[in-house]
Amino acid sequence: MYKIVASDLDGTLLTPEHTIAPFTRDVLQRLHAKGEHFVFATGRHHIDVAHIRKGVGIPACMITSNGARVHDENDQLIFSRNVDPALVAQLVEMVKDDETVTIHIYRENDWLLNRVDEDLAKYHKDSGFSFKEFDVENPPVDDVAKIFFIRHDHDYLMGYEQKFIETFGDKVSVAFSTPFCLEVMASGVSKGEALKAVAEIKGFSLNECIAFGDGMNDVEMLSAAKKGLIMETAHPRVKATLPDNEVIGSNVEEAVARYLETHLLG
């Protein structure tokens, strides 16, 4: 049946408090004992995800920064693709004067942002992974896995989404990870392409993969896997884009773990 289980984190596998619940941890450990290969597939930074994985207590590959980085169970980097430095500089230039939007940059070992946002700490209370500020007049442009923009107004950010697509075309990949977080990666980068790479390395095909997600940055992965399941709390754009995909419950009720227990462990 399925040999690889890939899941998004926030809004999907994690609780609304952004933690792994005990029942979910138990299911993932039982899946591993059965011989299934679990993959964390997220927009988060790999340093952050490594702490989450340690808390779960299983070896697992990590697709991070929406597919711009892939690490194996031993933290060895097996795939990496950066945003072109010139495009990073141009993206910062396009947004730097908008005081309503926070600019974030993920590099290999850093999380940088243009102004402090203490509200973000709740996402990283388990790992302790934290940010540093950068100067928008002299932004870091090398070794950038992704650059992303946060404002709690989806319609407003959609304006930037359109602007980025019109300006850069297929030179970048653009996706919302949440309605309030617009992300830009290098051309061709997605969780779907990363899942394909993991499957090939493991000696499996995408027909042996099952995936779970709730964001627009999950669409390629949910399409690539043999079965892609959508959380009931997913953004309407996800459901509209994938109208034939099964919708399960929410992360409040640990729907991913309950589905896995019923269908892969039952």
Automatic annotation (TrEMBL):
This is Pyridoxal phosphate phosphatase YigL. It comes from the Bacteria. Keywords: Hydrolase, Magnesium, Metal-binding. The keyword Metal-binding applies. Its cofactor is Mg(2+). InterPro entries: Cof, HAD-like_sf, HAD-SF_hydro_IIB, HAD_sf. It comes from Grimontia celer. Its EC number is 3.1.3.74. Belongs to the HAD-like hydrolase superfamily. Cof family. PANTHER family: PTHR47267, PYRIDOXAL PHOSPHATE PHOSPHATASE YIGL (PTHR47267:SF4). SUPFAM superfamilies: HAD-like. One of its GO terms (molecular function) is pyridoxal phosphatase activity.
